[in-house]
Amino acid sequence: MQNQRCHFLILFIQFVSIISFCYHIMPIRGQDETNVIKKVDVGIILDLETNVAKVMHTCILLALEDYHAANRSAIRIVPHFRDSKKDDVEAASAAIYLLKDVKVQAIFGPQMSTQTDFVIDIGNKVKVPVISPATSPSLSVKENPYFIRAALPSSSQTKAIAAIVKNYEWREVVIIYEDSPFGTGIVPHLTDALLEISTLVSYRSVISPSANDDQILRELYKLNTMQTRVFIVHLQSFLASRLFFKAKEAGMMSSGYAWIITDVLTSLLDSVDPSVIESSMQGVLGVKPYFPRSHELNNFTKRWRERFRQEYPNMDQVELNVYGLWAYDSITVLAKAVQNVGTTAIPEVKKPDTKENLSDLDALGTSELGSLLIDSMQNITLKTGLSGDFRIINGELQPSPYQIVNIIGKGERSIGFWTESDGISYKLTMNGKTAKSNNKQLGTVIWPGESTIVPRGWEMPTSGKKLRVGVPVKGGLEQFIKVEIDSKTQAVTATGFCADVFKEVIQSLPFAVPYELIPFRIPDTLTLPDYDDLIYKISSKEYDAVIGDVTILANRSKYVDFTLPFTESGISAVVPVRDDERKNAWIFLKPLKTELWITTGAFFVFIGFVVWVLEHRVNKEFRGPKHKQVGMIFWFSFSTLVFAHRERVTSNLTRFVMIVWVFVVLVLTSSYTANLTSMLTVQQLQPTVTNLNDLITNGEYVGYQEGSFVKDVLKRMNFDSSKFKSYSTLEEYNDALSRGSKNGGVGAIVDELPYLRLFLNKYCRKYIMVGPTYKAAGFGFAFPKGSPLVPDVSRGVLKVMEGEFMNNIIQKWFGNETDCPEKDGMAITSDSLTLDSFKGLFLIAGVSAGSALLIFFLIFLYQNREILDTDDSIWQKLSTIAKVFDEEKDSSNSKSEMPEDNESQTATPFAASAASPEILLHLASQSPDIRISDSLGASLTEEGFSTPEPGTPVHETLIGTTEER
């Protein structure tokens, strides 16, 4: 007993000693300011009735505990929690209380955007930082200098959602959003993101937070009657649960539908009733901010669950979400900012100078610490944040990767990621970037109705409404479109090329498209509706589509979307042909152009002159009187045209020139004969008008198809509209062109190529297509702007055009176009040959003749060089050379063969005979018995004379020579 008393006494003395020690070592406030623990009060405003707020509340407490445990500084952050009770006024009142009575230096919260808007204004006035997880894009950090956004704005996910839509090539979507500032804030940003990928928001469905189940069901039935089957849902969990439950009831969670939910629902999926998830949300896609799993996060999650059970023991367990992680990191960043400000002095709130007639807001004063904190927090990074790389730049939390999930069973399954820099990827690397080795596709998705087939994104309305298809009704050209109305049943049927193509395209689609035809009459006057008015019926929503011979034009594409064209394009003109030119008396001159005729004639004269020069001194045939020599020049060269020359040439240079020239003549005559034959045997179709401008100049009438846009094209070409005449049948085209402008017809028909080819196929020998072809896009089917049918129908058009069906349908309605020899209206003509085709030949002939002529003169001058060496004047030298050239060249061949002893005897008679041939003729005439010696005959032969026949007496040749002279 005594030992127990002693033991108790010792413990009491130790306890008193500890208290005394603490009393003596801890300074009294105001005596040593450097060691006093300073408190920084922080206000926390949350909707504590919500699960998100309770998660954030627990995270904030753990964040402060972890910070104080890790930092043994003289500053302690003291949180002051206030409940905003889901009311904007309560949130504002809580902020005023915290600033006025508690003197907080910063405020975290509220979590709702409308509440935050009030609190931000108060924070700006008092200069106290407001760190809020509100996600509304309408809250601007730039316009509120004391506002720090501690969560990603809802607008940051819009590009991720747009990437999903683009990945599956959906052309239209419906946005379902809450009728509140929370819901409406994302719509403009989401619409813009979808427009960037050319996706149309076909409808915006607004649901009030107070809507009952019947109102939600009626809205869903309305959506179900539309074509679009892709829905983007931006609702809070309590309203989204009811929407999906009713969507299941309306049959909209089956195969063919696609649903995408935003991060506010995907991140808080655990707050949705599990029964709703399992029964009504299977196959839904969702996006949410991605935070990487780490060892620190796993340990924190265990601690958080234990602490959450302590704070809320009577509440069902909820899961830790990204909003709780952002709250943890935000408080950690705030604590670091307070530490960065310094521990030497914590400025107090500066009170206003006067206290008279002050409102509650005026009585708050301003915080001197707030400006220091905001400067420290606006650009701060927390590399080891639980939510990942927690970076605040210019007061805004920077985007992190978004995770794309597929709701399967009771939870979700990751199918990919999206980042601002790399877009969609199946996996992420350790540093949060997309892996380059992966393709840019999402994983396998189980769609609503447990389907693995990607929804097309639209369907025909389930209301039983048919596609209203407008078709033009006109009086002619029924090969393209013809509309008939049954007099009893009023049923509308369409036949023709365009109608058959449309039917085949619709049948080729992988789904049924019921439609009904609505006739639209195209009258034959200029003032009544035309094809443009038919197109406008789509933009006015009277028609759902237009088929027929409707041309794709730029001005029409402003109001409708066209499919790919199924016909050729272009605008041209058809005019009558002239009479057959085979009746022309001078057609034999047409095979060669004028310049070719002149060049050929000049070369004939030139070649004859060259041959005369080369043969004049050595050939008797090229000697004699001047008129004979001139005649020989023309006769010899032109006789080669028909290869009738019989003159013998002796010079090798002449033979070389003649070989080349005969080849040139052969080519010329062959080409002339072939072209003349073509002109005389092939029908020549020459247009009466070769240029449309001639029609304007001559003031002629121009025809076009009634209701066609060609009328506007003619106006732009400066045609007088009073000269226009419209027709509707091929027979009317023929009649108008046959009569001509002067007889009540037209000078030309301007129309699109399909019509003109059909016309020429019927009247191919009377008319011809002229002028340039003005480009057009061809015929296409028209649908409303953004219609999801356009891509599928365009693919159907390509499929039909590539198959055998198109050839069969063309043969069916237009016949065999090859039956007309002038196919496509193009005449088969043989143009006159031009000089360009023979320049090479003439060049070779000219060079060869000129070279021979040059060589001859060089040799001649060399042989007579003694003349050039004299002292005579140049004129005398030229005169002497000319006389020598005109003299006949002596032949020494026979003389060299005779014996020397007989030279004196034969020289005199031969010289006499050569000098005076008249003597020989005189002797022969006086005495018939006189015969020329063999030596004389031999000498004459050697001089170049040719005998018609071998063995003919020489006197016959001499007689012939006398007659020629």
Automatic annotation (TrEMBL):
Gene3D superfamilies: 1.10.287.70, 3.40.50.2300, Periplasmic binding protein-like II
Superkingdom classification of source: Eukaryota
Entry annotated with the keyword Magnesium: no
Keywords: Disulfide bond, Glycoprotein, Ion channel, Ion transport, Ligand-gated ion channel, Membrane, Receptor, Signal, Transmembrane, Transmembrane helix, Transport
SUPFAM superfamilies xrefs: Periplasmic binding protein-like I, Periplasmic binding protein-like II
MF-aspect GO terms: ligand-gated monoatomic ion channel activity; signaling receptor activity
InterPro entries named among the record's database cross-references: ANF_lig-bd_rcpt, GABAb_receptor_plant_PBP1, Glu/Gly-bd, Ionotropic_Glu_rcpt, Iontro_rcpt_C, Iontropic_Glu_rcpt_pln, Peripla_BP_I
A Pfam family assignment: Lig_chan
Subcellular location: Membrane
Coiled-coil segments: none
Cellular component aspect of the GO annotation: plasma membrane
Membrane topology reported for the UniProt record: Multi-pass membrane protein
Role: Glutamate-gated receptor that probably acts as a non-selective cation channel. May be involved in light-signal transduction and calcium homeostasis via the regulation of calcium influx into cells.
Protein family membership: Belongs to the glutamate-gated ion channel (TC 1.A.10.1) family.
Subunit structure: May form heteromers.
The protein's name in its UniProt record: Glutamate receptor
Species in which this protein is naturally found: Nicotiana tabacum
Lineage summary: Eukaryota, Viridiplantae, Streptophyta, Embryophyta, Tracheophyta
Gene, per the UniProt record: LOC107796560
